[in-house]
Amino acid sequence: MKSVSKAAERIAKLLKLDVETVTLRKRCASIYVYYENGDEEPIPIYCDNCEKSDMQEVYTALRNMMFVLSFHPKHSALKPIREEIIPLS
User: What percent of the chain shows pLDDT beyond 90?
Assistant: First the structure.
């Protein structure tokens, strides 16, 4: 849980987004990370499938999903921060 939490906090800080953590009491429940914009339906962008993951791996997966999401016309608010998500060479 710590690696996913730290990775989500790191990407949120980079993109200047808020983070909300919800803990369920179910043992070995998969950990999900969602992107939510206002009253819109939350979009799942990561699931750990009850596997231990390195924080950097999770961060890279989140960053890649946010980059892809930034191209969706419904999420145009992410377009201006696209270069911060994945800087162009």
Answer: 15
d(CA 89, CA 86): 9
Mind listing the pLDDT tens digit for each residue in 10-38? Answer: 988 888 888 887 777 666 678 889 988 88
Give the number of other Cβ atoms within 10 Å of residue 57's Cβ: 13
Distance CA 64, CA 70 (A): 10
Whether 18 and 66 have beta carbons less than 8 Å apart is answered as no
**pTM, to two decimals:** 0.79
Q: Is the Cβ–Cβ distance between 32 and 43 less than 8 Å?
A: no
